[in-house]
Amino acid sequence: MYYHWWLLTIPIILFLPSIFYDLEIIFLIFTFIFLHLNLGLKSILNDYLHNKKTKVFLLSLIRVCSFEFTRCTLEFLI
């Protein structure tokens, strides 16, 4: 019954030591986390926010924060 949780957890636990092995893997994981976060926030704002001015302000704030997150990630990796 709970095998689904184990099928998702065990590969991640086995994958964790390999993250620190290669710098490109870390960069790839940061990139996918960033894209997932960015697209998720934009879809939440577009779905649940109906005031146009607030939506435009928050979408521009997400864009500015995404530039800052990219800059901090590149500083960390380089």
Q: Mean pLDDT, rounded to whole units?
A: 81
Which class of secondary structure composition applies to the elements?
mainly alpha
Distance between the termini: 45 Å
- Strand element count: 0
**How many DSSP H or I helices?**
3
Tally the structural domains.
Answer: 1
**Can you write the helix and strand succession as a string?**
HHH
In which range does the helix fraction lie?
A: over 70%
Protein name: Succinate:cytochrome c oxidoreductase subunit 4
InterPro entries: SQR/QFR_C/D (IPR034804)
Keywords: Membrane, Mitochondrion, Transmembrane, Transmembrane helix
Transmembrane segments: 6-35
Task: Describe it.
Keywords: Membrane, Mitochondrion, Transmembrane, Transmembrane helix. It comes from Corallina ferreyrae. With 78 residues, this protein is an all-alpha fold. The model has no long low-confidence stretch (mean pLDDT 81). The protein contains 3 helices and no strands. Helix 2 (23-48) runs antiparallel to helix 3 (52-77). The termini are far apart. The protein has one domain (22-77). The longest helix is centred in the middle third of the chain and has 26 residues, at 23-48. It has helices at 3-19, 23-48, 52-77.
